Structure formats: structure tokens, C-alpha cells
Amino acid sequence: MRLPLIAAFALFLPGAALACGGSFSSFVEGLKSEAVQKGHAAATVDQFFANVRQDPKVLKADRGQGVFQRPFLDFSKRLISTDRLKRGQSNAKKYDAIFDRIEQTYGVSRGVLLAFWAFETDYGGFQGDFNTVNALVTLSHDCRRPELFRPQVFAALELFERGNLDPRTTTGAWAGEIGMVQMLPRDIIENGVDGDGDGKVSLKTSAADALMSGGKMLQSLGWRAGEPWLQEVTVPANLDWSQSGLRTQKSTAQWEALGVRARSGSLARGLQASLLLPQGHKGPAFLAYPNFRVYFEWNQSFTYVLTAAYFGTRLQGAPVYDAGTPDSGLSGAQIKELQRKLQARGHDVGKIDGILGARSRAAVQAEQKRLGLPADAWPTPTLLARL
């Protein structure tokens, strides 16, 4: 396998650790050497890495995220059930005092954290059964995203030194996240909060700790206190659809002048917002406020982010969205074909993966505009045929 440049370069450095790839045992030895160089005691490092193993199930999970190929309406219906909504409302009451503290201290609304709590672990019911250290080292060794996971290995080592992680027994998600709202080790170190006052940060067993830590993390990522994040709207039939998408921002007054209206209540005053049409101009429509962009610091999937943000509004009383009658979309295989055609036309769509991400949407919108089609960033069989 051809190594990335950084890994190939490391091969020629005496005693240097591979950035990724190569023999797994040699890679682990490199991590151990680097940990000692960072100032960790050799005995502690040996103990931390003593039982580390490569986990092929982690790599399988990383490669098999086909659920994100589902369109928003399908994805949201799959994740948002009546039971999940009722339990969210019940937890809002049960932990009312905690949510009051979070809102006062970090400015994050309860619906936002409840939605993350629901989607990440079903309110703490299933937090993942992957060995955390094995997952992080496996993903660091893998050459797909080592720059993301390698620092987390050393953060996990720091948690071990603090007595907050056991490399043999601590488990979580396949990507190394831990606890009820699934936070990576570095995020726990930087944003962990003792919400229940017992002197420990226990994100796996204490809802107060997990929720307070999640609130602090969102604030650190730029959450703006007291501001909305997403709002369902109605749009006029004659709107210039090329103005939709995250790349375009207008004031709410400008959107109102174009005929955009809140489906319930009124638009937030004095804020910039983007018009989102997840399944085109015939489907549901939302205004995304500045706080919506913080969601992408938590998860990069547009469909996941929009669904989590929408569920947060539902948990705070927003009505069920108007699904509309969107045009037929494309299958995962068809989106891959579309991405190849867009790439051939000079568009940067990232990886050909069958997932309609931000770059693919932007390219779709540009081609729709060029071809005289409604430029709403929703790819249809008509667009695919025209390309």
C-alpha cells in the first residue's frame, strides 16, 4: 500500500514513530516512545499500552456508515420516535434543575442536549461496547484520519493517569467517544464538569456530569447563549432557490422581505440565517441560525446535524415538520455516479462515497443553476440525466 507522504517520510527518520500504517506492534512501540518523550512515566506508559489490540470491528464500523446516505425525511423518521420524544420530555422534567444550571452557566438550551443524549446513547441506555483504547489506537494506525485520533490516544493516557479511564475495561463508541453524550478523551479533559458534586467527572454513570460537560463543550465550540439554532419556515413558490444553502446568509429581515415566514411563532430578530432545503424546494424548509454551525463541530454529517437540531426544537415544543412533496432523490449508487460526473466537471466533492455532503450539495446547486433547473441543491434523476 502506498503510504501518505508524512508516513513515508517518517520511515527515514531514525527512531521516529510512523504517522500511520506499517506493523501494528511497531506502531504501538512508536506511540509508547512518543508518550515517554512527552513526559509520561515509562512504567505508566507500559501499563497503559500493555493489552492494546487492533480491532477490525472498529475499521468495519468506520467504513460502514451507510445510514448517512439516507435523505433527511427518512433519516429523521428513523431516529425520532414517539417513545424517544416522550422520554426526552420526561428527562427534561427529571433533570430540570441541571438543565437550568446549564442554561444559566453555558447558555445552551435543554432541547439541544436532550437531542444529543437521545441520538448518541438513547439517553445513556447504550454507550457502546468497543474498548476505548483499542479503538483509538486502531484508528490512529489506520491511514484514513490519523491526525484526528492520534492526539486522542495521548489524551486517553492522561485520563488513565488521573484515574478516570481503565485501558482494559473502559468502553464506548467505535470512534473512541465515552459516556452518555459521547465525548472524546481530549474533550473530556478540556470540558469535563463534576455536575453532581461528588468530586469526580463520570460521564458514563452520571447524567449531571455528562450533560454539564456537554453544555460546556458546546459553549467552548462557540455556542451563543440564548439564541435559537434552527426554525422551520414556509417559502414562496417564486423564491430564487440558488439563495438557499449554508453558503448564503441573510438577515431575518431580508428573508422576510423575500417572503420567508416562520411556520410557528416569528423569526428571530437581528440574526443572520441560511435557508436549508434538505430535500429541495418542494420539501421541508428551515432557517439555520449561527448556533446551527456549531453542530458541525460535533458531527460532520449534514443529515445527522439537521436531524439533531430539528429534534432539539421538537423537544422544546416545535410542531412536526411539513414534509411537503419533494421530488424523488437518488440512491447511494446514483449519488456516487453523480459525484463522479460532478468531479469530472471540475467540482470538488470530496470522497466519492454516495453521501450528499456539503461539497456535493454546492456542486449540485452550481450545475442546477447552469442548466436552468431549480437550484435547490437537491439532486434528482433529471439532473443526473442532464449531466
From TrEMBL:
<dbReference type="InterPro" id="IPR036365">
    <property type="entry name" value="PGBD-like_sf"/>
</dbReference>
<dbReference type="Pfam" id="PF13406">
    <property type="entry name" value="SLT_2"/>
</dbReference>
<dbReference type="InterPro" id="IPR043426">
    <property type="entry name" value="MltB-like"/>
</dbReference>
<keyword id="KW-0732">Signal</keyword>
<dbReference type="GO" id="GO:0008933">
    <property type="term" value="F:peptidoglycan lytic transglycosylase activity"/>
</dbReference>
<feature type="domain" description="Peptidoglycan binding-like">
    <location>
        <begin position="331"/>
        <end position="387"/>
    </location>
</feature>
<protein>
    <submittedName>
        <fullName>Lytic transglycosylase</fullName>
    </submittedName>
</protein>
<dbReference type="InterPro" id="IPR023346">
    <property type="entry name" value="Lysozyme-like_dom_sf"/>
</dbReference>
<dbReference type="InterPro" id="IPR036366">
    <property type="entry name" value="PGBDSf"/>
</dbReference>
<dbReference type="GO" id="GO:0009253">
    <property type="term" value="P:peptidoglycan catabolic process"/>
</dbReference>
<feature type="domain" description="Transglycosylase SLT">
    <location>
        <begin position="24"/>
        <end position="311"/>
    </location>
</feature>
<dbReference type="InterPro" id="IPR002477">
    <property type="entry name" value="Peptidoglycan-bd-like"/>
</dbReference>
<dbReference type="Pfam" id="PF01471">
    <property type="entry name" value="PG_binding_1"/>
</dbReference>
<dbReference type="InterPro" id="IPR031304">
    <property type="entry name" value="SLT_2"/>
</dbReference>
<feature type="signal peptide">
    <location>
        <begin position="1"/>
        <end position="19"/>
    </location>
</feature>
<dbReference type="InterPro" id="IPR011970">
    <property type="entry name" value="MltB_2"/>
</dbReference>
